[in-house]
């Protein structure tokens, strides 16, 4: 990491004096109210499996050796944070011993597809994934029928399954920690977080920003290396920060703040009605009145978004931004916001974004901040921002540490371990379903009928 930082730092280091000189004086307020999270209902329904016929799948036969390799992998799948009983090891053992090729093909294929689904996408049903809205294209990147076909032809079933593991080293650290977990509770806590890694894209990419909510930290990753770490203030339990991965498209300096109706109703609406001069002194401008009142806070020292806002469009109204409430960053537990993520050392963060991702010079960045005017620097190549929720993370000693589950999201995942997991993403049907054609009967009302299968 030191080498990477030395490569990146000269241009940016040159800008630091300018950045601090350009920064407007920031008020040290204690209660900033930024945009409220738009709470979305949890996803409670799992996707229906894709159904393929035997002819469509065109799978090779399972050899006895491949089936035995799958059975052995299932027997050791506890190391992956999963449970052998889910994948029908007894049925697979019987099919191997029975000598019926058709039976072996069906049982082994069913076990493989379910196990591969859980390793690629996670075992946990959507109903237990509280406030989880990540998008994951692993199904498009690694279709399971193609994976199985290749594994059978190359006699590489275990390697194919292991290849579904998330590539991030934090997942490997959790896997190693699970092997030496001392209590069932410790093991379950690790399994929960291995699951959360599987709910995300297998490969996060070479460049991204990641905020781990229970850790109260935001990291900037470039070429797979963490180049900056910032303390974060996240949503309080009543307005929790959801898990999502929108694309960052730009950084806005000296942003305006359009107040949501909830915050207008909390007090500024009354201030505008009773003491408009005070509201103007705080930078507020408005149109309308009563229920039609629309309020915008202009850029300045009192602006609730501070000097920067990361543009990351999403239906939850979640973004990273500055804050004039600097004192909150001194707290160990920092769940104070209305859902958005407040970012410590916002000038460093936004300067890094402008120079590295928007192609701007340090001088351009400094001038934009100093102008006090709202300026948008669009990113040449938008990148993902992962707003994650890991409650077990690597520590500095080669092990892992448990963080406070501030929103109580671990318990539903643990409870799901005692129940059936997600169904397979793909299932094989022996033959196409029969469709009963519609035949109008004479002198009666026509009704469409279909076969039941």
Automatic annotation (TrEMBL):
Protein family membership: Belongs to the YkuD family.
Enzyme active site: 321 (proton donor/acceptor), 340 (nucleophile)
Signal sequence, start to end: 1-27
InterPro entries to which the protein is assigned, alphabetical: LD-transpeptidase_YkuD-like (IPR052905), LD_TPept_cat_dom (IPR005490), LD_TPept_scaffold_dom (IPR045380), Transpep_catalytic_dom (IPR038063)
A molecular function (GO) term: transferase activity
CDD domains given in the database record: YkuD_like (cd16913)
GO biological process, alphabetically ordered: cell wall organization; peptidoglycan biosynthetic process; regulation of cell shape
L,D-TPase catalytic domain location: 207-365
Annotated pathway: Cell wall biogenesis; peptidoglycan biosynthesis
SUPFAM superfamilies tied to this protein: L,D-transpeptidase catalytic domain-like
Keywords: Cell shape, Cell wall biogenesis/degradation, Peptidoglycan synthesis, Signal, Transferase
Protein name in UniProt: L,D-TPase catalytic domain-containing protein
